[in-house]
Amino acid sequence: xxxxxxxxxxxxxxxxxxxxxxxxxxxxxxxxxxxxxxxxxxxxxxxxxxxxxxxxxxxxxxxxxxxxxxxxxxxxxxxxxxxxxxxxxxxxxxxxxxxxxxxxxxxxxxxxxxxxxxxxxxxxxxxxxxxxxxxxxxxxxxxxxxxxxxxxxxxxxxxxxxxxxxxxxxxxxxxxxx
Length: 178
Fold this sequence. Notes:
Elements: H1 16-42, H2 46-60, H3 67-74, H4 78-90, E1 94-97, E2 107-110, H5 112-134, H6 138-162, H7 165-169, H8 172-175
Antiparallel strand pairs: 1-2
C-alpha cells in the first residue's frame, strides 16, 4: 500500500524561502556540533559550555551576567542555573563576583583558565568564520543580519506561544492551525 506523503512543513513551498530556512537549519546543526566538540574539549556538559560562552560574550560586551540573566540566556530554571554555575566554579571556569553597591547582586566572571582554554579552542573556528564572511559583501551581511533579527523574533514568538498552558492543553486539531 503506497501512501502519498504530505510535504513537510506543509506551508512552505520549494523555493528561496524554504532554501533559506534549510540553510539556517543546517547552520544550526553545525553550530550545535561545534558546541558539542567545545564541551568535550572543556570537559563540560554542552549546556555548561554554552553557559560559559554566554558569560564570556557578556564580559566582552562590558556587561557581566547575573545568574538570573544567565538562566534566561540558557533557558534554565534558577535552581538548575545555580547547579550549573556551581559546576563551572568547581571546574575553575567562573567566579561569583559582588561588585555592585548592592552586595546581594552577583555577577558571573570568567577566570583566566576559562579565557585561556576557550581562546585556544575558538581561535581557529573564528579565523575560518571570518574568512567565510570575507567572501560576502558587507551590504549583504547587513541585510542578512536584519533578516536574522526578524526570524529570531518570529522564533521567539513561536517559542512563547508553544510554552503557554493554552497551547499545551489545546486539542491536536487546533495545534495544526498554529
